[in-house]
Amino acid sequence: MREAPLILVVDDVAVNIKILEVILRKAEFRVISASDGPSGRQLAKQEKPDLILLDVMMPDENGMESCARLKQDPATASIPVIFLSAVTDTATKVQGLTMGGVDYITKPFAREEVLARINIHLKIKSESLAQLQEQDKKISEFRDAQHSILVQEEDLPAAKFSVFYQPLESAGGDFYDVIAHADNSFAYFVGDISGHDLKASFVTSALKALLNQNGLKNRRALDCITSINQNLRSVLSEGQHLTATYIVLNRNTNKMVVVNAGQPGIIFIPIAGDRTPLQLNFGGDVLGAFESANFAVAEMSVAIGDRFYLFTDGLVSNDTSPDLQQGIEKMKLLLAGYRDLPLKQVVQNIAKDLCGSKQEQSDDVLLFGLEV
Questions:
Q1: Cα(5)–Cα(3) distance, rounded to whole angstroms?
Q2: Three-class SS of residue 197?
């Protein structure tokens, strides 16, 4: 059986509390009470009532101040507040609603009015909660769908890659993919769709399809990205674009082709020499913004054991440390210390060191490690 709604009454006059307790309990509500604003706020935080009846005229901390502080506290911000007051002027009523109250009842009040207002706002709260739960369900389903199209390390062990991906929202706008070709070559893609909201994540399924369609064995890497650019222009919304790096590695010949479209670069750690991490800068136009885009292309010979780290800017810059290059330099120093560890462990360590906790995150975070 569902528990009756809990109402918190905050009033400095004991007789007012008693009257409201009688009215509410007869209507089968559960009731708790406090005689001042600070005590009421503390009780609201502890008990999480479904609704608060709050007197306006109270000593020390009046109802307006209490309401403002309730709305500032994440633990109590969503609790509906109905003001009760003998003050009837319009300016006070407007102030109460501005402070975050959902309604205003003047004293002396009628039993029927109090119960009607309470029931209305409990219904509104219940419907809003149901909508949020339905939205969360849809977002969860979309997150699962997005996750399902992301290739996992165990799916293609011969590709020798490791990835850390942590979206800002339930689903993100960063994207990666790995495609295996019959001649023991692999295509690797890392992209960052502009925007931090779910709209950005809607593009990923189309991008996955375009990569599989265009990343064919006999297509040059540049041709693949050029074709994707043309198709993306009809998929992306106005003002939206995509930065990306596309690598094709032939593991038989140890030849690599890199196509870059505005990504911040690649960090390369050669197996030979002192194995100092090197930043490879390519540049190139972004995807989806220009009909005739110029992408940076580089061809290079690689050695077995060489490692390449691709990343999106959310890994190396955030609200507290916005300097992108400074973040890249920090990443290089960290990689120098971890270079003898297995690739998977390096990726996990670097992600932990650079992006910290989810609470500090201000963008999607993606780090992709590739070993020749």
A1: 6
A2: coil
Could you report how far apart the first and last alpha carbons of the chain are, in Å?
Answer: 61
Strand partners, 256: 249, 300
Of the candidates 190, 146, 187, 144, the one whose C-alpha atom is nearest the C-alpha of residue 315 is 190
The answer to whether the bond into 108 is cis (omega within 30° of 0) is yes
List helix spans (H) across 169-220. 198-201, 203-214
Give the number of residues written for the chain.
372
Angle at 165 between CA 246 and CA 347, to 5 degrees: 85
Q: Looking at residue 290, what is its pLDDT?
A: 87
pLDDT at 317: 75
Give CA–CA dist 224/216, Å, rounded. 8
Name the token pair of 173: 């706008």
Structural tokens at position 247: 């690598």
- What's this model's pTM, rounded to 2 decimal places? 0.63
pLDDT score for 111: 92
pLDDT at position 197, please? 52
Cα distance between residue 211 and residue 218, in whole Å: 14
Question: Which residues, given as ranges, of the chain have pLDDT below 50?
Answer: 171, 358
Which one, of 316, 325, 300, 307, lies nearest residue 354 by Cα? 316
Structure token digits, residue 84: 């009760």
> What radius of gyration, in Å, describes the C-alpha atoms of the chain?
29
Question: Coil, helix or strand for 36?
Answer: coil
